[in-house]
Amino acid sequence: MTEGVIKPLDSPIPLPAPIYRDLRAIYTLWLRDIIRLWRDKVRLVGSLIQPVLFLFILGGGLKGRFSAGFSGGGNYQQFIFPGILAMSILFTASFAGIAVVWDREVGFLKEVLVAPLSRTAVVLGKVLGGSTNSLVQGLILFSLYPFFGIHLNPARFALAVMTMFVIGLAQTAMGIALSVRMSSSQGFMVLLNFIILPLYFLSGAMFPLNGLPKWLSIAVVLDPVTYGVDLLRGILLGAHHFSLPVDILALGAFGSIMIFLAVRLFNMESPV
Amino acid sequence: MIRIENLKKEFVTPSGVRTAVKGLDLKVGTGEFFALLGPNGAGKTTTISILATILKPTSGSVRVDDLDVEKEPHLVRQKIGIIFQDPSLDDRLSALENMEFHGRLYGMSRNQRGERTETLLHMVDLWDRKDDLVRSFSGGMRRRLEIARGLMHYPRLLILDEPTIGLDPKTRRVIWEYVHQSRKKWGMTVFLTTHYLEEADSADRVGVMDEGSLVALDTPEKLKKMVGPEIVILKTDPHSLESVRQYLENTFGIRDFHSEAPGELSFPMPTGVESVINIVRSVPASIRAMTIRTPDLDDVFIQMTGKNMVLNQENASPFHRVYRGKL
Questions:
Q1: Contact A9 B69 (CB under 8 A)
Q2: Which residues from chain A sit within 8 angstroms of residue B74, using beta carbons?
Q3: Domain B2-218 CATH assignment equals 3.40.50.300
Q4: CB contact under 8 A, B54 and A5
Q5: What ipTM, to 2 d.p.?
Q6: How many CB atoms lie within 10 A of CB B59?
Q7: Which residue among A91, A96, A133, B242 is least enclosed by CB atoms within 10 Å?
Q8: Is the pLDDT score of A180 beyond 70?
């Protein structure tokens, strides 16, 4: 076409296999979230304030009032500890959805969408980044457990961390699935409150599940977060409402469905 | 490098179906520098988004380096570098981190990333600021960083959507130098949309797009020749304008008059007249100023689309020759 154009060289970057390329991209997206989390330490500390208030003030204040004894024989403060952990993870994880909306608003999402990685890798990278973020948050709170008279052997400790991670994974995926059609972060916040608050309040994080009114007990059973909280409580306090397999199955199913939904919706929204 | 056949793109909007691109056909060769001009809303950005695999065509086929953008988007993406019209940086990361992120996504090794980042950040004069968060950058600095990032993975096709808006002339020159070097080095094809006509002037071919389809496609020289010979602009008293026009029409048979400002009359230089001075001397009215200029892409643009591309007419062309005073 023009004079002086040399015959085209092949790009010096070798083309990797798609799977390897996607794995590397997932890692890259995850790394970005970690860098941003590290940079935003103020937010990290700030978001710990609310759960700490719940734990020490609400929990401390009501501890003496509710002396009836909770399942497992613990006090109210111990009882809500797993619930508050779940709350903290729930809210942080949902923020991953806001991050996607935010990326869309500032245009950074385009940079990711034109890069050579599959849409599935985009979602998985964001899900991993968001759930790591929420796990870090959860772990800081979790480290307070000795103050509440909770004793854990290494196996229970590991199980608790894994459970928190899975709860984060499921919630992040839910946040991302919800974010797909959203173009304003304010609108997304409102939507999120609509969904997250009922999920949290119905999960039995703050009250025992036995002896509830009929309508409430139905709502509780339908809330997927219930099983995560129950599992965490079982591991930490040795007391749970449902059986262990039921909790694990329900939490696993919730996580898988949410990840599947997030991937599906994201692929539908940006189809190419 | 690019083969677009009968491309159509429709958007469903609340006010009905809007067709942004109506049956576009276009081929761009490997190593070519192609510029696409057009008024706002002509469908340029839509075309670019389809090339860049962000939007799906409604119908028609688009191939980049013989790869279908719909069927093999990943392979296409590895080959293109794109500089968007709107910002697309992570402003919570540093300049270096934005480059690193890009390099990793495109599968570059650590050494390659380091080397390219250093070269390119030097090129756009941001090496000293490499560790600063993009948040603290000015608009021009962000733009420069985006251009460096778009070139990082040795794209075979560089897509530039209004790339140099808000850049100072020196930076523009440095960036264009580097873009042309890259074309030579690895046969990079450049696909540009711009409002700076002198940038389009150095393109191998220019396409003019209006209302979703191409209305002109040729080398800049040929397009300008199509508009006609030199253009003469006379400035005179607003009330003697009509008599001057009458005179020129009767004496020299000039028909194609335009008035770009009050008291101003522009027309293509008639054939068979040796010098424009002959015309001006014979006009029976006082002429305050006269300008002769070669047609530029702006004239092409106006003729093809009926719309004015640059508002600032005075600076439209570097070929101005101005005679002032009474002749």
A1: no
A2: 18, 21, 116-118
A3: yes
A4: no
A5: 0.84
A6: 10
A7: B242
A8: yes
